[in-house]
Every structure is written in structure tokens, then in C-alpha cells.
Amino acid sequence: MLKATLRSFLAHKGRLLLSALAVVLSVAFVAGSLIFSDTLSRTFDRLFATTAPDVTVSPRETLDETVPSGMTATLPAELAARVAAIDGVAAARSDAEVENITVVDDENETVGPTTGAPTIGTDWNPDERSPVELTSGHAPRGPAEAMLDSETADRKDVTIGDTLSVIAGPGSFKVEVVGIATFTTTNPGAALLFLDPETAREKLLGDAKAATSISVDADEGVSDAQLKQRVAAALGTDTYDYRTADEQAESDVEQLGGFLDIIKYVMLGFAGIATLVGIFLIVNTFSMLIAQRTRELGLLRALGADRRQVRRSVLTEALLLGLGGSTLGLATGIGLAAGLIELMNALGMNIKSSEMVIGWGTPVAAYVVGVGVTFVAAYLPARRAAGVSPMAALADAEIAGIGRPLRTRAIVGGVVAALGAAALVGCVTASETGSAASLLGLGIILTLLATVIAGPLLVRPVIRVLGGAFPALFGSVGRMSQRNALRNPRRTGATAAALMVGLALVGGMSVASASMSASFDQQIDETLGADFVVQNGNFLPFPQEVTEAVRDTPGAGLVVRSRLTPIAVRLPDGDRVETTAAAYDPQLDEVATITYAQGDTENALAGGNLAMDLDFARDHGVRVGSTIPVEFQGGRTTELTVGALTDQDAAEGFGTQGGLYFGLDTLEEFAPGGQDSALYVNAGSGLSADELRDNLERTLDPYPQVQVRDLADYKELVHDQIAVLLYLVYALLGLAIVIAVLGVVNTLALSVVERTREIGLLRAIGLARRQLRRMIRLESVVIAVFGAVLGLALGLVWGVCTQQVLALQGMNALAIPWGTIVAVVVGSAVVGVVAALLPALRASRMNVLAAIAHE
């Protein structure tokens, strides 16, 4: 049996090649994502471990800042002298470093990364742990000199002697580049501008006596933990945070962890789609191969092979396919990881391919996925093969298994579909976002399974409709192509299922994203009343001088400021909620429309008051007049009175969780030093909006990081943000289509082999080569469109249910992108044509007499 299995595998290696490609793609994305993320993690671990001081003293941060507020926490720079006198301290120095600066060259172009990494302004205070070294020019001396990192200088064509403008929180200033520093380790993608220590404190922090942290080096023989205890004992534990080198490195890695996880999970998402679609392809391939080998398997049974041996034979072939595909996939994954590393290098990161990390878990995961996928996918066909009777050796292999009833599929598919429909109905009727989202996920999984199980039952009614015009348009060739697709519903259903999965995902996400865009458009129209919004391009806060420049712009009338700040509120039910609150000028009503359930804007923004979302207040037992303890960044606490409850949709709320906001005077009292995140500007009397826009753009020309947006621009910005998610879905669709095309090609190629004698007879009675190719193309097109119709129908249901979940967050508009849906259907027909090219060409080149004599 082993010898027969190996010969059978080698005999069908060409037919199994396309299935192996599905395994290769699945394994490649799994291996590539693990290698790439492990390499990044190891690189940054090494960077942070080698650059962190023995002990770092920093201001105590009591709240997580999920949205930038523009506040820079500081401590007294003179602490460095106190720390240096502590027993066991070899050296201590104050550091001044901020990440919210903008650097502009003499052509008014931003000098900094375009990938979202920060532009960091810091003091030049080198030691043996510094990640950079001076390689040309000299260190900055005095307030008019600066040094730039070499990668930013090369990328932006900055040389020694150039003048740069630095836009920092305390104000703008000009510097001359006098030196270039080169990274000795990985550059995480940031741009670094170095100033002398005194200038850094004064220009970046606005206080020559302030610092952002104290770096402490230990004497020989003193451990980091011991040094940390001594420094904490000397300075006290209430005001400052203390971290050893390992703790600081771990903290830095955690801050970067979200970015690394996004990359990892996106790639694993591709691997998941490839695996799921690949399963359909492998099941179909093995099912067809077993159907074509019915007589061969019958002969084996007649010669004495039992069911277990036949099943084991088929699973051994799957194991060989999985091992081969996994090996190729692992090699491809290494190449994919290398390509991603080069891409990151092109974006500004300095990661060496020679330092690629391939941990023991990567090949284990690769082979588990590759072998597991093929083994699971081949199990049902193997069981079917084990059931072949010895009498099948006398049967016609071409019709074996075609007529088996689909009653079991109908029952199982119906039950699963009913459960899935119930979950989706529950999702639509749920009133809590969490439970609705859970029911949505369950409903999506169950309805997908139901469609896969019951797909063959839908083949005949749907394809009769889709191919109904074929006989009229293409005559007998069209009729035969339609009947070929109907001949084996299981095969047609499995082939179309691969395409269905990808298109269902795209259909659902397209409806969801279009609904989000329409909802935001509606909310912006209803809420935003200002002529223009001035904002940073990446939503970061901007310095006060930008606000002053806007106020001084000719024709600018009312200017309302908006700031964001992290806070924690202690609610009457005992919950402590950390969220982001907003603060506004008193004239908020003149630039925004807010719906209040109780109170008004005057009460909301009055000193000592705050506003809260009505639903959030109900959930936590809050009403107008309630006194809420509030904690601000830096540990300052107070009690604020609820002056108003808003009945806004959460998506348009003025904040995040809870929709909390208050007056700017309140924020300045308890959390001073923040920066504005947006300005709402109305034109003054006698000036048109277009004229004001021209004036604003001229005023803000020295600040290229800030944009002027009207209502249409604001909508476009929201659409662009949503489109990022949609592009990812389209990329997943592309991968699913690639594998689906392989599946259609494989099915048609095996089908041509299966129908060799039939094709020979058709050619013998006068069917031309061109007609034969057209017949196979039409068959491929109708299968592809069938998969598209099922996928889009399923995706539309998912999308509508997703929109109902979003409606609980205030996104009430339902929009269906009919243009995208029509494009997908047309694209599916094109996919069918492309997939049929090689099988049709092969069929048309068959020798007629040899085909007729084929057994």
C-alpha cells in the first residue's frame, strides 16, 4: 500500500501542484509574520536595553494618554545634582526631550518622517549608551545651533550650514545645522534634532529649570535595583516614577508593542484567509482525484486492501502534500520577512536582514499549519475513498458519486443557517453594543458555515438563472457549459466557496464602511457649524502661537479653541473610568450644534462644571447636579458638578467614553500647559468664506503641519481614515481571489481530464476548438459568478447587521455601495475567464482519437 500510495502521489503531482500553492501561501504568511515580528521585537529589545540608563527618574504619570494633549510632564532639573550626591551614584544628568515638535526647512517643507513616527527634539548629552554618535561637524553650542540625525538629513537633503525652523510648544525658533549624528543601532523611524542642554530646556520645555527625566548611572558594584531603592528613598515615592534599565526597556517595548502587534495581526489575518480558502481548494482537489480513481480504489479493495488502508493511503498523500507545501511556504515566508524588512528600511528604519530572527516556534507553526490544513481538508475525501466498494472497479468512474443525495447537507445546513439567522436577529435587536457585537460574530461564523454546507443545494436553482441566457446567446455550446456546471453540485459548490469567502468579507466591510462614511457625513452636517476647522494633519496638538496667528488673521471673526486631556472620573456606582475629555471656549454654541437632554452649553462650560453623555450618566447613576471626583494628569484632583447631559450620538460626541467636556478655564486650572487640538473659525462680517480661507492659508504657511478644512474637507478626511481599513480588506480580497483562481483552474483542469472521452466525442462530431474553449470559459464564468452572488448576498446581510451594531454607537445611516457590488460581479466574470485560459487551451489541443480511446 505504501508503494502504491507513493506511485499514486507522483502520478498526480501536477494535479496537486495548485493545491500545494494554497498551502505555500498560508504557511508563508504565518512564517513571514512570525519572523518579521520576532526580528522587530529582538531589534527593539536590544536597542532599548543598550540605551536605557541604570535608573531613570521621571514625573509620575497617573493616567494613560490615549489621545495626545500637548502637555509635557516635567521635573526640576536641579534634581540631577541631588541624585548625583546619593551614595552609589556614579553620575546623574537631567534630560530634556519632547516628541511634539515640527521642523521645517528653508523651502517650508517638513523635515521629519512621513510614516507616523515622531520628530524628537532632545538635548545633546552623549554617553556610552547613546544610540548616535557625532560623525560630521560639531556639537551644538548656544541657542542658534542644532544637530540632525544622518538618515533624516539624507532623506530631506539637509546639510551642515542649512537653516531650519523649529516649531515647539513654547514657540518657534530658527537654528543652523552644525553637525550630523549617525545611529549606531536601530533607528525606530524617528527624526532626531539635538540642541545644547540649556537651549533644549528653554526652547522645548519653556523653562530653563525643567527637565523631562533624570538619567542615573550606578557605581561599580551597585546593582540597578539597589540604586533605584536609594534614589527613591532620597527623593520620595509620591511624586516621581523610578525604573531600572530593564524596567525602562520593558516600558519602551510596551509602548511600541501596539505598532508591532498591528503588523503581526494583519499578516496573520492574511494567513487565516489563505488557510480558510485553501481548505476549500484542497477538499475539492482530493474529492475530484478520488472520484477519478474510483475504479483504481475499487481494484485495490478487490485485491484485499481494507477500508483503513485506503483511508490511510489518501491521508498519506495529503501528508506528503502538506510537508512539501510547508517546506516551500517556510522558505517563502523567510523571503517575505526579508522583503518586509527592506520595506521598513525604505520607510526609515534601520533593520539588518542579517539579524533576522527565526525562532524554533516559527518552523513548528509553519508545519503545524501546512500539514494540519492538508490533513483536515483531506479527511472527508479519505473517508469517502475508504467507502469505495470492490464492485466500483466495474463501474464507470466518470459518473461515480455524482448522483448521491444531498439530504444530509440540507438538514445540517438548515439547522446551522437557522442558528446563524437567530444570532443575527439577536444582534439587530440587542440594545448593548457588547452583546450585539458578540451575536454578530457568532452569526457571521454560523451563516458562513451554513452557506458552505448548503452551497451545493443552491447550485442548480442559481446557476439555471445565471446561465439562463447562455443557450440563447451561445447556442448548444452555452447549453453544455451550463449543464457541465450543474453536473456535480458538490464540486461546483466547493469551487465557488473559495471565492465566496473573500467576496462575503468585502461585501460586508464595504457596506459597513459606506455606512460609517454616510453616518459621519450626516453627523458633521448636523453638528459642525463653523466655516473652517484648523487642525494638525495627524490630529496632534499645535503650539499656542498657531492659535494667536489664526486670531490675528485678517477677516477671522470668532475663534473657538478645543483641547483634549486624559482624566479619570469616580462615579456614584463605584466605577473608576479613565477616558479622554474635551475642553472648549464658552462660545461653543456658535460653531457647533449640541443636543441637550438637560442643561445647556452655558451650564456645561461654567467653572467647576462638566457635561456628560445621557446614556453614560444613566448607566452609572449620574444626574444633573451630581458631584463627580475628577483626576487630571499629574495627580491633581477636584470635584466637578454635572451641569448638563447631552443627547448626542456617541460617534459625534465631544470626547470619547462618556462624552465628557468642560470649559477651558476649568482645564487650565487643573491641567495647565496643554495645547489646542482644533480651532473652529467663523468669518468676520463683510468677508466671504473663500476670502477667509485664502487669508488663513497664507497665515498658516509657516506651519505646514496645520491644515485649514471646511465641511467638505472634513468629510474627506473622515472618508480617508475609513478607507485605510477598506484597503486592508481589499488586500485580503486580492489574496482570496488568487487562491480562488487556483481553485477554479484546478477544478477545470481535473474536470477536463475526467471528461477526456466526452471531449473527444464532441470534437469527433464537429465541435470546433474555439467552441470547446468557449464552453469551458463559460462554465468557469458561471461558477465564478455563482460564488460572487453567494458571497455578496452573505456580505450584504453581514454589512446590514454590522451597521445595526454601529447604530448603537450613533452611526445611524445605512449605505450600500452598489457601484462596488456591480464591479465585484463583473470582476468575478473576468476572474472566471482568466481561470479558464489554461484548462481550455489544454482541452482544445487534445488528440481526438486518443481522447475517444481514453479509459
Automatic annotation (TrEMBL):
<dbReference type="InterPro" id="IPR050250">
    <property type="entry name" value="Macrolide_Exporter_MacB"/>
</dbReference>
<dbReference type="InterPro" id="IPR003838">
    <property type="entry name" value="ABC3_permease_C"/>
</dbReference>
<feature type="transmembrane region" description="Helical">
    <location>
        <begin position="318"/>
        <end position="344"/>
    </location>
</feature>
<feature type="transmembrane region" description="Helical">
    <location>
        <begin position="265"/>
        <end position="291"/>
    </location>
</feature>
<feature type="region of interest" description="Disordered">
    <location>
        <begin position="108"/>
        <end position="151"/>
    </location>
</feature>
<keyword id="KW-1133">Transmembrane helix</keyword>
<feature type="domain" description="MacB-like periplasmic core">
    <location>
        <begin position="17"/>
        <end position="233"/>
    </location>
</feature>
<feature type="transmembrane region" description="Helical">
    <location>
        <begin position="410"/>
        <end position="431"/>
    </location>
</feature>
<dbReference type="InterPro" id="IPR025857">
    <property type="entry name" value="MacB_PCD"/>
</dbReference>
<feature type="domain" description="MacB-like periplasmic core">
    <location>
        <begin position="492"/>
        <end position="698"/>
    </location>
</feature>
<feature type="transmembrane region" description="Helical">
    <location>
        <begin position="437"/>
        <end position="459"/>
    </location>
</feature>
<feature type="transmembrane region" description="Helical">
    <location>
        <begin position="364"/>
        <end position="382"/>
    </location>
</feature>
<protein>
    <submittedName>
        <fullName>FtsX-like permease family protein</fullName>
    </submittedName>
</protein>
<dbReference type="Pfam" id="PF12704">
    <property type="entry name" value="MacB_PCD"/>
</dbReference>
<feature type="transmembrane region" description="Helical">
    <location>
        <begin position="724"/>
        <end position="753"/>
    </location>
</feature>
<dbReference type="Pfam" id="PF02687">
    <property type="entry name" value="FtsX"/>
</dbReference>
<feature type="transmembrane region" description="Helical">
    <location>
        <begin position="818"/>
        <end position="838"/>
    </location>
</feature>
<keyword id="KW-1003">Cell membrane</keyword>
<keyword id="KW-0812">Transmembrane</keyword>
<keyword id="KW-0472">Membrane</keyword>
<comment type="similarity">
    <text>Belongs to the ABC-4 integral membrane protein family.</text>
</comment>
<feature type="transmembrane region" description="Helical">
    <location>
        <begin position="778"/>
        <end position="798"/>
    </location>
</feature>
<feature type="domain" description="ABC3 transporter permease C-terminal">
    <location>
        <begin position="270"/>
        <end position="390"/>
    </location>
</feature>
<feature type="transmembrane region" description="Helical">
    <location>
        <begin position="493"/>
        <end position="512"/>
    </location>
</feature>
<feature type="domain" description="ABC3 transporter permease C-terminal">
    <location>
        <begin position="732"/>
        <end position="848"/>
    </location>
</feature>
